[in-house]
Amino acid sequence: QKAPEFSIFILHACAHNPTGTDPTPDQWKQIAAVMKRRFLFPFFDSAYQGFASGSLDKDAWAVRYFVSEGFELFCAQSFSKNFGLYNERVGNLTVVGKDADNVQRVLSQMEKIVRTTWSNPPSQGARIVATTLTSPQLFAEWKDNVKTMADHRVLLMRSELRSRLESLGTPGTWNHITDQIGMFSFTGLNPKQVEYMIKEKHIYLMASGRINMCGLTTKNLDYVAKSIHEAVTKIQ
Question: Which PANTHER family match (predicted)?
Fold first, then answer.
């Protein structure tokens, strides 16, 4: 509300990192209304499309809503996670504008930035993405793979971790683990408990308590849950 007019706001399209908490559609509408009233420019960061809900369309809802409301915007998209191409550094910048001439001006500036930044990046990752997205069969297979990752890896690991902590009787409430979405979660552990996890259990997470849920597997889930239980019960 108090930001200077024409300020640029970076918005996570879905699966907010690090909180794992996304605005609801109604909240997105409120955000859009404020931004329109204050002439604020949306710059979406879309790094986890498909990993929030398992649906590419559902995870793109916020960006598409802003476009439908007449916003000019940028959307930076990464394919590192949802294509499993982390070491290829593949992504794109989508520019939505009302005026074709303005879009051309933006493109010319982007070309200059690209030329001076990396000039001619490797094309292998980009070709993998392009081939997949332009082939109906491969696109359908990829969407199914993304849904599998969201449902059977991320969501399942969240559910199983919460279940184990509650079964152990770990002090506190743990519903936030399943309430949050995406690859990352705030565990609620304090810095001293995090230090215990790192030094005594060799489980690595941020001092804020943020953990990468994709680091959980069926093989280490029990160990992680018991370690969190120890940290919470031993360290205040």
Answer: ASPARTATE AMINOTRANSFERASE, ASPARTATE AMINOTRANSFERASE, CYTOPLASMIC
